[in-house]
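Our collaborator T.R. sent over the components below with a one-line note: 'Predict the complex.' Nothing else. No constraints on interfaces, no templates requested, no preferences about which chain binds where. So this is a plain run: every listed entity goes in together, and whatever single assembly comes back becomes the starting point for the next discussion.
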Amino acid sequence: MLKYVTKRLAYTLIVLVLVSLTVFIIFNFLPIDPARLTCGKSCFPALIEANRHRLGLDVPWWEQWIRFMHGLVAGRNYAEGSAALHCGAPSFGYSFNQHSCVTTIIGQAFPVTFGLAIGSFFLWIVLGVTLGVVAARFKGRLADRLATAFVLIGTSLPTFISGILILLFVALKFNLLNPIEMGMWHSPFTDPFGYFKEFIFPCITLALAYAASYTRFTRSNVIETSSEDFIRTAKAKGLSNKVILRKHTLRAALSPIITIAGLDFAGLLGGAIITEGIFNLPGLGRLSLKAVLIDYDLPVILATTLLAAAFVVVANLLVDIAYAYIDPRVRVG
Amino acid sequence: MTTPFLEVKNLNVSFPTEDGEVMASQDISFNVALGETLAIVGESGSGKSVSNLAVMGLHNRARTNISGEAWLNLASGPVDVISAPEETVRRLRGKSMAMIFQDPMSALHPYYSIGDQLSEAWRLYNEGSKSDGIKRAAQMLDLVGIPDAARRVQEYPHQFSGGMRQRVMIAMALINNPSLLIADEPTTALDVTVQSQILQLLRDMQKEFNMAVILITHDLGVVAEVADRVNVMYAGKIVEKAGIDSIYYNSLHPYTMGLLSSIPRVDQLGGHRLKTIPGQPPSLIGLPAGCSFRSRCEFASNVTGNLCATSAPLLEIKAPEHASRCHLSVEQLNEFNPSDVRGTHK
Ligand SMILES: Nc1ncnc2c1ncn2[C@@H]1O[C@H](COP(=O)(O)OP(=O)(O)OP(=O)(O)O)[C@@H](O)[C@H]1O
Ligand code: SF4
Ligand SMILES: [Mg+2]
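Returned assembly:
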């Protein structure tokens, strides 16, 4: 098991390095000159070149990559002399657009996205798995039909519609959310109720979209597992249906969900662009969107892209380790 | 004669489907006594598993039509597992009757260790801690001939070979000392060399536990070594029922004769061509009137009045302890019996 984890860890590090290299190469070939973007219409070539140097963009892409990696580990200085700026480790770069270290910017946005991701994850797992199991147990009956209807609605309704519907016809209509307060940060520690009010609707929006596919997945997995030979063996032993479902069927049927859930959660950590947009939540999704569409804030885009990729890669590692823990066929060769 | 442990009477099992009702088992009656082995033989789809799963109560009652009786003569009194409440039957499973299946590769839960799975079975009917259960599991593994049992209880199914897994299945089935063991093609999925070891083990275990054993197989060759009596099934019905020797040397049914002549025999050297029965068994949905075997029977024309096509033969006693479902007379059947393919009479 330890050997397996070490191996997967090394492999993950390599993938992370490759991912960051790829992102750097892509950014190098973007038809946008970030130095040109540092000043407005009044730009003149010498200033652009000076800024290029300050941004560290006057060296080849691979050297930029090395500096970036070094900055991640050891922090980094941007510009020189009296204008010098320091961003402590882990430094994701400096946004001249926002006059702030990218790490600081992300540090503000990430808790929002994280709260959204955790909240909706919890909701959709509980809802999706419960509905799926109930639907499978009462296959063909009313409960199953209702679950199927839920799956249909959930999978066909995109979040930009369900989100707006929830916002307009639930949150605002019943005065559950104050439109002026939307997007203001409520600390979960000092103002748990405000935090809850702010997050519950976007969490429900996301959870509905995900729960539908988890319901379908759980239902089909439970039904499929129920016809496995080892379930018949469990019955032949004399176990009760309850024990068979809990100990034998669900154990086998739900394990694959870990993989999907891990990756879905990691994807959400990168930012839920639409939902954050609708509910005016200042998370990573909105940060990226603004950086891409409005500010051309390349250091921020670079950082959020890398982070989103890193979340998925790390999630893959964690999922594999969890799976090895659950499935002896992976754990013991 | 002692009372049999299991008495199946007029058991019918059918499955309603969109295409019609699948008559998987019809009019099944048989007995098995403690210490006795009954073989059930027949082609794939003849209803061997379906009828025995009904005895075990393993059909989904909501989606299966079952009628008839199956009495277990327990020490506490007889119980009809067909009409008994589901919960009563569940509490007999694993304790009074146990079953092992064809494919040992998929019959064990991949996520639990062998010890866990055996101990779970034991603890269902015994007071004891989990470690007691694991100890008991190791004893059972040892009994069924798994070397290094104390260590191997901790291992998982995928670490065992097919033959070893079938031993594990046998150990698990026997852990609560059941009176009836139903073995549904226990060797079909295994290598030939392993097959005979498993059969030998079943025989040893039967002696050890004094069980009634039902051995389901489609291989009449297997039956000779282990069974006391044989039921031959065709298209959901028992077509012949007799002691092992009567079946082998004096079969009274054209289908059994066909099966027998397709067994390779060591005493017939020199290019004797094996016969197989041409044709396919009929669909079990909307079975035609008459004998189900008619379309494949060589001798149907010998029955007067086209009876084979119009009237279904009954399972009749045609000789002592020997029943057959055929319109032909015993004399005709004896005449048609191709004794040459079966070697000499005893
Ligand atoms: N749940 C079910 N629904 C519909 N038909 C079924 C069902 N279970 C079994 N059958 C049908 O019943 C018939 C008898 O099946 P059974 O499994 O008893 O055959 P078998 O003699 O055990 O054959 P094999 O040697 O292949 O195991 C088959 O035609 C099968 O397709
Ligand atoms: S009843 Fe007729 S068709 Fe059926 S086995 Fe006998 S002879 Fe053949
Ligand atoms: Mg079968």
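Summary for T.R.: The interface with chain A takes residues 56, 58, 90-95, 98-99, 101, 103, 106-111, 113, 120-121, 124-125, 155-156, 158-159, 169, 172-173 of chain B (CB under 8 Å).
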